[in-house]
Design goal:
A hairpin with a 2-residue loop joins strand 2 and strand 3. The longest helix has 30 residues. About 45% of the residues lie in helices and about 20% in strands. It is α+β, with helices and mostly antiparallel strands. The strands form two sheets. The chain has a two-stranded antiparallel ribbon with strand order 1-4. The chain has a two-stranded antiparallel ribbon with strand order 2-3. It is rod-shaped and about 100 Å long.
Amino acid sequence: MKFTFNYATMHLITAGYKGELDRKLHQALIDGGIAWLNAARAIIPVWSGAAHGTFLKLAAKLGTSFSIGGGVPWLIGPPYGYARSAARMVVGDGTYILEYSTSLWHLVYNEYNNANANKKAAHVFSHLKTPTPYHFQERAGEVFKQFAQTVKLPSPWAILQVKSQKVG
């Protein structure tokens, strides 16, 4: 007596999945970075535009742009902030990094200190309308975290190959 049967095997195309995963996480990093950027900019007021100018390199890495308006035109302005910032994006091979840094002294000071309460800084920071410390990194980081929690990994089912086999 001879028996025959058919069966199917599933094969995960790992290169295809890794490519789809990379595309999805790269886009998520961009979208989350833009959410972070918009949150940070909403917290920091525009006076000269220098503080918002520190975000221009990050915006370029994210493939977006924004205008800086409402500042006092005769002051240091966005180019001053731009020159005192850095941004970096690293994507690929399981690595997804977005970095922003600044050495703009008054933004760094206002991030951590109550400028209106500091008598030594009163000549520079007197009567700020937007209360400091800003804590924009922490607050914008929370926005990024909330966004990141909504990101879904691609389904592996879309790239499975089913192969039928016949025995007998």
